[in-house]
Amino acid sequence: MTASAQTIEVDPEDRLRADLYNYLGLLLARPAGEMLLEQTAGLSGDDSLLGEAIEGLARVAKASKPKSVEREFNALFIGLGRGELLPYASYYLTGFLNEKPLAKLRQDMASLQVTRADNVFEPEDSIASLMETMGGLIVGRFGTKVSLDQQKTFYNNHLGPWATHFFTDLEAAKSSVFYASVGAVGREFMSIEREAFRMTAG
Length: 202
Fold this sequence. Notes:
Keywords: Chaperone
Organism: Roseobacter denitrificans (strain ATCC 33942 / OCh 114) (Erythrobacter sp. (strain OCh 114))
CATH class: Mainly Alpha
Number of helices: 10
Structural class: mainly alpha
Helix content: 55-70%
Strand content: under 5%
Radius of gyration: 16 Å
Protein name: Chaperone, TorD family, putative
CATH superfamily: TorD-like
Number of strands: 0
Shape: globular
Order of helices and strands: HHHHHHHHHH
CATH architecture: Orthogonal Bundle
InterPro entries: DMSO/NO3_reduct_chaperone, TorD-like_sf, TorD/DmsD_chaperones
Largest sheet: none
């Protein structure tokens, strides 16, 4: 996704939300290298369900090597022909790639003035791309700050219907070790976001 340079005041809690969206997007876009694994190993959580999931991810990252994480990523998302999981909204919602959910997402992205970066060739409805987009919307990385109602609409339309299902599948996938812990963090985070948006008026 492309961003425009502009300083926008962001509430610290929203900054944390955006950071977690962006972090999950980074972990799901490509295999975690040595630096990202080291950063992940240094994370700490609290005694909430999300905090415990983050602690679990940190423990697994500490024991993981870049080569094994790359093999796991390839088995999960690339494979011979296709990986164990297809991390796209269209597939989860219709059983096929490049379907109506992708067309609707492109419409909504255009209305929010979000465009796909020139060097990105994956469909915009991949889980990594949607995590990154949501993170960018929260902090106004695409030019203007997006209201909580707009965030809620985007979440409800493009993440709410399938992201928790995807993260649950990622947790349970037979190829998942490191990414099972990523799935646990994603599942808990989506649960928190869903509940927070449910309590938001509008």
